[in-house]
Design a protein that fits this description.
By secondary structure, the protein is of the alpha/beta class. The chain contains 7 helices and 9 strands. It starts with 16 loop residues before the first helix and ends with a helix.
């Protein structure tokens, strides 16, 4: 995930994404919950303060149809470029949403959810606003304690608390951004969230594209590279442009 004040991670960029998109278009794979349109799934990206003031008209011209913008982290950080990025995307005709970078060892899920919603994580059924998203992954500040010094049960409880508060405040369950490896290791492969939380999965190897966190049978958004034609990380939506709009509206 594009994120602020964090050490960069090395990521392999050898994904044969166009081959995968073609596979989706001709009938899908085990990952697809909805079939992609003949033109291919909508392209998107995610940004944080690293991208600063984004040229949104240029991003739109290069194919951006949706974007997630980092809003907050824990309860002491708000992206200083959030307004330009979030509002600028909408002004350019790009469906946008906000995400929160979780630090479960700093405060409760409920507390972080409330901070997130107050600082950009709200949602409305206007067709231009994606559901709020929770970015939960390896601890970037302590490589020895990748699961935040928390037990599997504690992390499951933290995610549930965050989700419940976002739902109470916005009316939508958050999208969950994660990797199969972190999820299965740090939550024990909990399948408790798959039925009512859309999955935003990060995978960078074409050979691993089928790996999903336990419980989910398909992804809604796939982050397949951390650089490309669009600012920030590169993403695809698993469906058509009309399905993307319905997803934003809450259908």
């Amino acid at each position: 995930m594009a994120r602020d004040r964090k050490p960069a991670r090395h990521r392999v960029r050898t994904l044969a994404v166009f081959v995968f998109v073609a596979m989706l278009a001709v009938g899908g794979t085990a990952l697809t919950g909805t079939s992609a349109s003949a033109a291919g799934p909508p392209k998107g990206h995610d940004v944080s303060s690293h991208q600063k003031n984004v040229d949104w008209q240029k991003a739109r011209a290069k194919g951006a149809r949706f974007v997630y913008v980092k809003a907050t982290e824990a309860t002491d950080y708000r992206n200083p470029h959030f307004g330009q990025q979030y509002d600028g995307a909408r002004d350019a005709g790009i469906i946008r949403g906000a995400y929160h970078f979780a630090l479960p060892d700093k405060s409760s899920g409920r507390t972080q959810a409330a901070y997130f919603v107050r600082n950009g994580g709200a949602w409305s059924a206007d067709g231009w606003t994606l559901p709020p998203a929770l970015d939960i992954e390896y601890n970037p500040y302590d490589r020895k304690h990748k699961c935040y010094r928390m037990t599997k049960a504690q992390l499951i409880g933290w995610i549930k608390s965050f989700s419940d508060e976002v739902k109470r405040l916005t009316g939508r369950r958050p999208v969950i951004y994660t990797t199969a490896h972190w999820w299965n290791r740090c939550t024990g492969g909990s399948g408790a969230f798959a039925s009512d939380h859309a999955l935003w999965v990060a995978r960078y190897h074409s050979a691993d594209a089928g790996a999903l966190p336990t419980g989910w049978s398909y992804w809604t958004i796939w982050q397949y590279d951390n650089s490309g034609s669009l600012p920030g990380d590169q993403n695809l939506f698993n469906g058509s442009a009309n399905q993307l709009r319905r997803f934003a509206m809450g259908s």
